[in-house]
Amino acid sequence: MTGVTTPGALSGITIIEVAERPAGEYAGKLLADFGAEVIKIERVGGAPTRHMGPFRADDIGGESTLFGYLNTNKKSLVLDLANPAGRATLDKLLARANALIDDHDEAWGTEHSLTSTAVAAAHPKLVHCIVTPFGQGAPPEWQKARPINVINAGGWAYHSPSEAAPDKPPLKGAGRFLPDYESGIDAAICVLASLHRQRGVPKEKSGGQFIDISEVEVQVNRIDCVLDRMLAGEAEPGPERTAYDMGGPSTSFACKDGHLYLFMTTQLHWQGLCTLMGDPAWAKEFPTDWLEFHCTRERVDDFREKIRPWIASQEKLPITEAAQKLGLAMVPVNTAADIPMNEQFVHRGFFQEVAHPVFGSVAYPTVPYKLSASPVRIASPAPALGAYDAELGGV
Q1: What is the sign of the dihedral through the CA atoms of 264, 268, 273 and 276?
Q2: What b/e string do you get for 186-213 counting C-beta neighbours within 10 Å, with b at 16 or more?
Q3: Do 98 and 32 touch, CB atoms closer than 8 A?
Q4: What pLDDT was estimated at residue 203?
Q5: Count of CA atoms in the C-beta half-sphere (13 A) of 61
């Protein structure tokens, strides 16, 4: 992004981040990437995410790629919050800040005088956001929940993927921190909404606001129609998770250069597929409306067996593009290596190259929305531990 000088959308906003998990750190990252000054408070020895893998392949136990992703554009300040001097420095920073982002449990907040009540009393104009597994007031033992607990409690693990092998447990979804990322998005949006609210009222009346994010409620908020029906009592949950593909033939298939995913539920889907395949003779064995009225398990198994050889001879990008033009929901299963080369991502400039002192040049993913006057900009990699201590008064 050399030559970009446009101020970020959040230029002039200061955020203090005491968060130490991906949930809070991702919220801070989103705000930092749009131009806010985000000062990350780290414990002596560094934030826990600095010590979480994956690590650089040739430097096991060294630089965390997770930390590198979550902390672009931030400033690192090391403070011992158990020490009165460190706590006093934090209060000085909060006095000039616009918002505070946290993701610790209530016991930690009480120990460090960072509960909603304590912060509101000391800094009445501050926007204070806390992201926890079950929200404020939950039993203390619940707050020990990890992402895999949250994604199961919220229902997502049940339906991802829909075609799990019957002899294996369901997966927990896309990556180990999906609940953290989803909650981090909501936290960032709520912080922005609260800051916007302050601009709409006279300065003398613009008080702060406390934001309580429950990660499991975020998960339930995102559920699809199938889980909705189960929660409403209209459908019975069970170990056979085929409700998510409507009991049809939808699943992943191996192709010439990887895998693709096919979803079919209607006669139009079937007609599109037959056209795509060149109307093979075996397709005539299936009624034209079999997906809607004759979709038995035996017929699904028969279909999958017959289509596998044809799909195995196809390349995933050309065939899925042709399928979509026929109204058929067939998509490539992209690997991590595929994503940076995806034509749409390249066209939109979704990845930005930034030099990292350990990793070298890194293509960072940005955000799925574009602001014409104040685009997102990754100006600096994740900071070295305590890189801003001298500037900000750290230990």
Answers
A1: negative
A2: bbbebbbebbeebeeeeeeeeebbbbeb
A3: no
A4: 65
A5: 0
Decide if pLDDT at 197 tops 60: yes
Cα separation, 378 vs 365, whole angstroms = 9
- Separation of alpha carbons 41 and 47, rounded Å: 8
Cβ neighbours, 10 Å, residue 79: 24
Mean pLDDT across the stretch 265-289?
Answer: 95
Indicate whether 44 pLDDT > 80.
Answer: yes
Q: In the chain, what are the domain boundaries?
A: 14-222+346-392, 249-335
Confidence of residue 27 (pLDDT cuts 50, 70, 90): very high
Structure tokens at 386: 């305590």
Lowest mean pLDDT among 24-28, 117-121, 334-338: 334-338
pLDDT, the chain, mean = 89
Q: Classify domain 14-222+346-392 at the CATH superfamily level.
A: Crotonobetainyl-coa:carnitine coa-transferase; domain 1 (3.40.50.10540)
Identify the pLDDT of residue 328. 95
| pTM, rounded to two decimals | 0.89
* 249-335 placed in CATH 1.10.3720.10: no
Question: Given strand 258-263, what is the order of strands in its sheet?
Answer: 251-255, 258-263, 329-332
The alpha carbon of residue 206 and the mean position of all alpha carbons in its chain are separated, in whole angstroms, by 32
Q: Give the model's pLDDT for residue 62.
A: 77
Rg of the chain in Å (alpha carbons) = 25
Count of alpha carbons within 13 angstroms of residue 233, beta-carbon side: 0
Phi/psi of residue 71, nearest 5 degrees: -130, 25
Other CB atoms within 10 Å distance of the CB of residue 42: 23
